[in-house]
Write a structure and sequence with these properties.
With 296 residues, the chain is an alpha+beta fold. The protein has six helices and 15 strands. It has one domain: Sandwich (Jelly Rolls), CATH 2.60.120.180. It has a 15-stranded mixed beta sheet that branches. The structure holds 2-acetamido-2-deoxy-beta-D-glucopyranose (NAG) (5 copies). One 2-acetamido-2-deoxy-beta-D-glucopyranose binds next to β10. One 2-acetamido-2-deoxy-beta-D-glucopyranose binds next to β14. One of its GO terms (molecular function) is cellulase activity. Belongs to the glycosyl hydrolase 12 (cellulase H) family.
């Protein structure tokens, strides 16, 4: 009994220690539950395991080292290869969100990342790895809806900086000649279509894997508004960065480091919001079709 009490008071002391902000940010923290989260004391950003598609065919853990400017995810999912099993990610928490697109001055993301087989002995294709590396954002005409859910907002906008295996953007198997936009020297292609929640998804795919990403991606939103694909009054509510894990027969490790995620709002210069080329008629026709499909 005395021994037990001694043990439990030692345990209590260590729990108290771990709860102190300085102690919690000086150690690596590991989470393996489906919906575990950690709010960074330094940035307020929220790290999530987000194994929303867990079908029992694998596992996924995230690890957040001291400093909260990096994280890694180690995962394997062996069934339902066309489905997203988990989206280990970090969500930006900012007083600048939600923001109407007409006031989005900049949205900067800097990050260095890698995706490798965990045991280092084989290639990603040898273990059937399928995954993407994305910035995933939700938008809605209503400012509350835009930030309070990932299924209710009307729009999802994704920026793909990495693509492995057969992971592909919604609409990429239909649209053969997508509109493109060159951002800071890199060409991004735009695909669109409805997802399973009836949301209209716009996906900007980088022409190659950009493992050292450092962009202001707000011009990709300016393109959508100036081509009447998204109303400029729409609110951007949620910004997340991470990897959507589809499939692998043995563990994959995704690592993201030195990330810096920042959004600023204000008065946009007219030249930033307008410009670009004529609207893509095929895309608009496809959007109309997508609306019908979503209604059915
Ligand atoms: C594979 O990854 C899972 C989830 O992160 C982990 O629990 C397991 O220990 C890893 N297995 C090996 C052999 O590394
Ligand atoms: C495109 O892929 C979707 C799944 O993302 C599928 O439902 C659809 O049938 C495919 N369309 C074509 C033309 O292959
Ligand atoms: C990213 O790298 C993988 C593995 O090398 C490759 O198969 C894939 O085509 C690359 N993606 C792009 C968009 O270049
Ligand atoms: C363009 O790329 C360079 C090099 O990665 C980076 O330093 C700079 O911030 C980028 N500029 C914008 C506007 O994204
Ligand atoms: C948003 O943009 C509008 C139009 O330029 C401007 O009148 C308004 O002051 C901006 N709002 C903020 C918060 O900067």
């Amino acid at each position: 009994m005395a021994l037990l009490r001694l043990f439990s008071s030692a345990l209590f002391a260590s729990v108290l220690c771990a709860a102190a902000p300085t102690a919690s940010s000086s150690t690596t923290r590991v989470y393996c539950g489906d919906f575990d989260t950690l709010t960074s004391a330094a940035s307020q950003n929220i790290f999530s395991t987000d194994a929303w598609g867990n079908d029992g065919s694998g596992a996924s853990c995230i690890s957040i080292p001291a400093g909260d400017d990096s994280f890694s995810a180690t995962w394997k999912w062996t069934k339902n290869q066309d489905n997203v099993h988990a989206f280990p990610n970090v969500r930006l928490v900012s007083t600048q969100l939600p923001v109407q697109l007409l006031n989005l001055t900049s949205l900067n993301l800097a990050v260095d990342w890698s995706m490798t087989p965990s045991d280092g002995s084989s290639s990603l294709s040898a273990i059937g790895a399928s995954a993407d590396v994305v910035i995933d954002m939700f938008l809605d005409p209503n400012r509350i809806t835009a930030s309070s859910s990932s299924t209710k907002p009307k729009y999802e906008v994704m920026v793909w900086m990495g693509q492995f295996g057969y992971a592909n953007a919604i609409g990429a198997n239909i649209t053969k000649t997508p509109p493109t936009y060159k951002l800071n020297g890199t060409t991004f292609s735009l695909y669109t279509g409805p997802n399973g929640n009836g949301q209209t998804v716009f996906s900007w795919l980088a022409a190659s894997n950009i493992t050292s990403f450092n962009f202001d991606i707000s011009p990709l939103f300016d393109y959508l508004t100036s081509h009447n694909l998204l109303p400029a009054t729409t609110y951007l509510g949620s910004v997340q960065y991470g990897t959507e894990a589809f499939h692998a027969t043995s563990n994959v490790t995704f690592s993201a480091s030195n990330f810096n995620l920042k959004v600023t709002k204000g008065i946009k210069k007219a030249s930033m919001a307008m410009g670009g080329v004529a609207p893509n008629l095929a895309l608009i026709a496809f959007l109309g079709l997508g609306g019908v499909v979503a209604l059915l």
